[in-house]
């Protein structure tokens, strides 16, 4: 009977894997940086309790035992006492496991096996992380335990890594108060949010105005003396504001912000899409009609169009918004991707048939590739419903990263265009903001790639990311600089808000592992609060768009739109507050708590992530339901630890 049960279980396993799970096509590279990386093409690295208990099907290790617990133990053990970080990471899926059926993972701590976690029921493909530093010993081992009685059940694992390249380190004994996480949640609530939740800022039904004066009012006159029509709605700015509301909810649980985010999604979806020629418009009139139906459509704007949809999906798992993100990704790679030259085109004309060179310089734009990763891919990739799509996005981001290295990387800098490499003038995106953002995006991507292909480029040698963070810091004033003027010097005439944000965010991310940057962050974060928060114009605060080297302002007139214009709104300042909260809590050794809102049927199964970071989920608190655009959503507070 046992053999018969195993036979049917094996057949069903094959069917599940081939038909229901989808093929895993992730590319594998060899790398000495990874202690263990197993894509499960064989089980040669594993000891099996019974040779019939585990098999490989399409690159997935599948358990086919029926009645008895079976184990799959990594043959190799590790001396880990001298490791600064140590992380176990793998993908898993279970289907139809009863209460007495399970998949479990254990670690051997030198004295005995310690259970890490157990799963039963149905768990769709998900990636899990475990911090193994607390179990360090001279012979650390890993094993899986599985038991399933039903031939209709399934247990599978894939893409296992054990690495000392990324992970969490213990909280420091002391930490500057300004780094504390709750400080940054309060900063968002009191300094950022008010300017973006006035009646004027919220517009009507997601029609958010792009331009506003220093006190938040509509510009008067609406047509500026330079001819700028300040009634226009830039789709990228509608999307960025939609993002800010979604991330504000993620940070605070403020339900009104999530409702605003959905309104923004709806307005963009209903008015921003070009249903005649395909793609998305770049600018709209105040009434939602296209300002110029024949306007070119560049890749950067298309990426930011996806940002609002992606952020709302990340929080809610709204399938319609996910479909918009997937559609934009497919448009990007079907129309804008130049496979011959391995680069993303600057843009296309309004018919999506003719390439546009934005600067007429016969060069490529860094942001055409970079902002795909930054605006939507990195945040949605691990939570997409379809496992195949998750792998596709992961592969896409690696393709884009390889393209950025090929065309824009030189002398340790990611230059703004392929034609202006080596020009230290701060123009055409040759600044710390774009270069360090590229480092940051690739760093977060590298943590997800099992072989960590970018680790050496990012962290080793004379041109590592650490060199550029240190160069970007103006230690004479305790603030960030805008751009390098040589390999060893930076500008001395101030910095814009968004570059400052990117510099803080990357540095804080690096500080999670090294703890070398706390003193720098103590200065830059304190000066952010002092310099950039508006306490002058009205009562709604908000963030200035730049300061001089010593932190003084630019003497903005009251009718200036420098706090809300066609390249500035709530996006960067909201992300800055969110990331400083997440990293601050982790640095304090405290839990990170974030808010989601999902359909009732998904409250236990949806994949939750601490924004673009990796981490371990330790608790879900199911709060009340509330309505967003006619849909009832369950508010869920998710708690994370070991964020990196």
UniProtKB/TrEMBL annotation:
<comment type="similarity">
    <text>Belongs to the N-acylglucosamine 2-epimerase family.</text>
</comment>
<dbReference type="InterPro" id="IPR012341">
    <property type="entry name" value="6hp_glycosidase-like_sf"/>
</dbReference>
<feature type="signal peptide">
    <location>
        <begin position="1"/>
        <end position="30"/>
    </location>
</feature>
<dbReference type="Pfam" id="PF07221">
    <property type="entry name" value="GlcNAc_2-epim"/>
</dbReference>
<dbReference type="InterPro" id="IPR010819">
    <property type="entry name" value="AGE/CE"/>
</dbReference>
<dbReference type="InterPro" id="IPR008928">
    <property type="entry name" value="6-hairpin_glycosidase_sf"/>
</dbReference>
<dbReference type="GO" id="GO:0005975">
    <property type="term" value="P:carbohydrate metabolic process"/>
</dbReference>
<keyword id="KW-0732">Signal</keyword>
<dbReference type="GO" id="GO:0016853">
    <property type="term" value="F:isomerase activity"/>
</dbReference>
<keyword id="KW-0413">Isomerase</keyword>
<protein>
    <submittedName>
        <fullName>AGE family epimerase/isomerase</fullName>
    </submittedName>
</protein>
